[in-house]
Amino acid sequence: SSGINAEYGGYWSSETVKVSYTEDGTTTTGEGTFNSADMISQDFSYACTYTTIYDLSNSMKLELELFQLQAVNVENNKFAESYQCVNWISKGAWMGIFAGLILIITTILSIMMLMSVTTPDRFETSKSKCLIIPHEH
């Protein structure tokens, strides 16, 4: 069984999952938090290739592979179009994007600084007075 919340207008989400199984005459029941499917439109199902649900009370672990679930609007015993559990952009891609942006900004600022460098408007010649550039010690 699962805890499906469909109170949001047009959306559903999952909250808990409860699993019972019997092995050698012993029934074991576990309940865990399943918040992977969060705010899914009622026109979509939720699909994932792999997820793990932990139950800390009984030290149980439930591994789900290649699963799909839909809370509402199931027609002709077929799932609707699915919302995949994978991220659109991975963490490594985000790191590359941010590093690239930092490099681009640094390059643009460096070019702007180089373009603002001006040449002196007065040069020393043998006939002119010595050019004295004051400096601090």
Provide a brief overview of the structure.
The protein has 137 residues and is α+β, with helices and mostly antiparallel strands. The chain has one helix and seven strands.
- State the shape: elongated
Number of strands: 7
Strand fraction equals 35-45%
Q: Which structural class should the secondary elements be placed in?
A: alpha+beta
Mean pLDDT: 76
Distance between the termini: 80 Å
Radius of gyration: 32 Å
Largest sheet: 4 strands, antiparallel
Helix content: 10-25%
The number of helical elements comes to: 1
Tell me the series of helices and strands, N- to C-terminal.
Answer: EEEEEEEH
Please mark out the parts with pLDDT under 50 across 5 or more consecutive residues, or reply none.
none
For this entry, what is the oligomeric state of its chains?
single chain
